[in-house]
Amino acid sequence: IRVIEPSHGWVALKLGELWEYRELLYFLTWREVKVRYKQTALGAAWAIIQPLFTMLVFSLFFGKLAKVPSDRIPYPLFCLAGLIPWTFFANGLTQSSNSLVASSNLISKVYFPRLTIPLSAVLSGAVDFTISFVLLLGMMAFYRQMPSGRAYSFHFSFSWHS
Fold first, then answer.
1. Does position 90 have pLDDT exceeding 90, yes or no?
2. Helix, strand, or coil here: 16?
3. Quick check: 121 and 81 in contact, CB under 8 A?
């Protein structure tokens, strides 16, 4: 028998307990992936189409019309390199918060580490991230742009004009 008591103060993540329930995490993630691709008519192609069309819109409006500089990087590549991690973060945050509400009946009836529900939602988004990242690598090869040492260092320059 396991007695569940409320915690006081800072709650530890209990990663060891999460490791014990790794099969549950795997199956919840797999369920999320299957549901995500079953609900779209395009299936896994949606993971390519969505960032591709967003990149085209950004390239048109910000690159061509607004003339936003991209530091001599082709603008579609510049947009896609920023859109992919941002989309992963934004979708992960949204899906993880929605997953807690959607799984409230499971959470209230059975004991398991509660972190598995939002973590499975984020991990299912990692599939989309991986597919989109392959698209980014393909575009980098097309434009003959490979990451340089500048990609790994943060350089901020400010210029003050009076």
1. yes
2. helix
3. no
